[in-house]
UniProtKB/TrEMBL annotation:
The protein, known as: Sulfite oxidase
Keywords: Metal-binding, Molybdenum, Oxidoreductase
Domain Moybdenum cofactor oxidoreductase dimerisation: start-end pairs: 239-353
Domain Oxidoreductase molybdopterin-binding, chain residue ranges per copy: 45-217
Biological source species: Neobacillus driksii
CDD domains per the UniProt record, alphabetical: SO_family_Moco_dimer
Matches recorded under Pfam families: Mo-co_dimer, Oxidored_molyb
KW Oxidoreductase (keyword) present: yes
Keyword Transmembrane attached: no
Reported cofactor(s): Mo-molybdopterin
Amino acid sequence: MADPKHHVVKPYLVTRRLHPENQETPIQFIENDRIQTSLFYRRNHFSYPNLTYSNYFLPINGMVNTPLLISLQSILQLPSKTVEVVLECSGNKRSLFEPKVFGEQWGKGAISQGVWKGVPLRTLLEISGIKEAAKEVVVEGYDFGKRTDLDKVFSYTRSLPLEKAIHPDTIIAYEYNKQPLSFKHGFPFRLIVPQWYGMASVKWIKQISVMASPFNGPFQKIDYMYYPNLENDDGAHPVTTINVNSTIQKPLDMAKINTGKHVIKGIAWSGKGNITHVEISTDNGHTWSKAQVSASKSSYKWVSWSYEWNAVEKGIFSILSKATDSSGQTQPIKPYRNRNGYGYNAIDNIKVMVE
């Protein structure tokens, strides 16, 4: 019989839904900056697609001089680019909205990061030659299903403005953490769009089309829009760049701890620049102290931070974390309220009991 003292307990994904599969990273138990594939969050609108890879070709069409049908092998032979990027679902932390909003009730784990390798989308667009009238690049995935709101079948399809599509770090990825991209995360190819929420990083790429007019598919113009008014669509605008944010990983929310020294630790990230500082409050926001933040030269990654707290008194304490980025944005006290519950980034807040 195995010795229970030597039994290694490992974290595993937190299931939010089975059909389609939506699971989040156990972010409170993550110790490093690169999330292994098995713990990378899974966000699906539909069932996984049925694909055969033996004869995979990627069409590039629309407002291009030379439409292409490029093979998987040819893409793998093109000059590659490697980027370390955080991907965050725009619905991350949706369950924290008060009052509640409808949608997948994500906790704090619809976020993961690692190293992606692939071909810049720009390279493929340059090979096909973009016409002068081009405005957007539409990327269609193989995943599809019926939308009950429209009573019609759609594939998951999104567009990028041309300037974002041709950014050198927007890549068509085929590797993650030096391993072939897993099927559940988009094999053989997925788009990676740094600094934007994960809905832009289309999986299982089926085709790429360059357009002269705005794309109006339902995942572009109905979903992934901020609707600030609950009753109507006034003021609607698209979800794009990741908001400045932070998450406390340790201690756990509602934990009981002893008096003495404790390390409060977590992560912080933003789509609008580097994290410049993280502040911690152990008295529900009355006073703030600066945490130690790990240095990062990349604005595409989260940073780790830590703060040593000497818990002298017994009682219930609210611990808060507040991040600020290089564009001057700081986490707000209250989140931006919107109908679909996107972009939650209020100051993180947990409670502990000191005994």
